Amino acid sequence: MQKANKFRFFVQNLTLLFVFLGAVNFTVLGNEPEEKFNVSEMIMHHIKDAHEWHLFGPEHGGTSIYLPVILLDNGLKTFSSKHFYHGEEVTLIKDSSTHHIMKGTGPATGYALFHEKIYKMKNGKLHMHNGHLTNAKALDFSITKNVLSLLMGAILILLIMLSVARFYKKNGAVAPKGIAKFLEPIIVMVRDDIAKANIDHHKYQKYVPYLLTVFFFIWLNNMLGLVPFLPGGANLTGNISVTLFLAVCTLLVTVFSGNKNYWGHIFWMPGVPVPMKFFMMPIELIGVLTKPFALMIRLFANITAGHIIVLALISIIFINKNVAWGGLSVPMALFISILELLVAFLQAFLFSMLSALFIGAAVEEAHH
Fold this sequence. Notes:
alpha+beta
């Protein structure tokens, strides 16, 4: 049974690599003159947010799920992103670099898509300066790939946790079964090793729900980005906007939980000479902000770096235009992808633990 599980684990991760291979245009291996393979463009295409969920095939013209575009521009406008991706492609050469812009058709007429940002065309024209469009942007509330992934992750967490809660409500404090059997040790770990270990024993219980939510949200979405049957899976926790929001949540919980002792050590440090108090005060205030900033960067950088390394290793085949390089790059990429499973859990654990540490410092009572 154990051998069968190991074999299934190997096949799933190998499938992930072939998904990446299938998402890249294989024409670079032909003998005819082709456009030079752009590694950075291919990697950015896979890790950035988009208005479509690309499944397989070439970037334009492949198989994709087109997501709804919602714009607020002289009223509410909604239409499918297909009107961009199947629109007119305009190639501009500025500052010795080439830029591809998708002009909208049908209800998207008058708008253009550039680096997944929607711009308003002025008198039917686009203006570029230093590689950036200077046209105004419409207020974009679209359901992008990352937004859809976030909703999927939230629904999955609700279904899983409600299922576990129903089991205990129905059966009481009994030996867990099914999914509760898998989740109970993890929930107990978050409660005892994260919340209770870092927050005062009399106060930790009210912060357990927040820490559980953060832990499972990060872990589940990290794993969703690695699932083999989700080609082009969303890089949600590798999006700095998402990690910024999570870090701000921890900051708000910490700030509003801070007691007299916590703020006293920031604004009027006990045992420090009065002149030094005024010198240390702004430093302590900056420290309050840098802690969540470190949370934001750590999660964003580690998740994004893992995806980039795997894609870069696979790109070796296409850079050298020789499938034989797969004997080197595929095993290395497979090793990194397996390591990513550990990183997915570790980053969720670190974010939750450090959040608990900051909250614990805010609610700690003075020691005499």
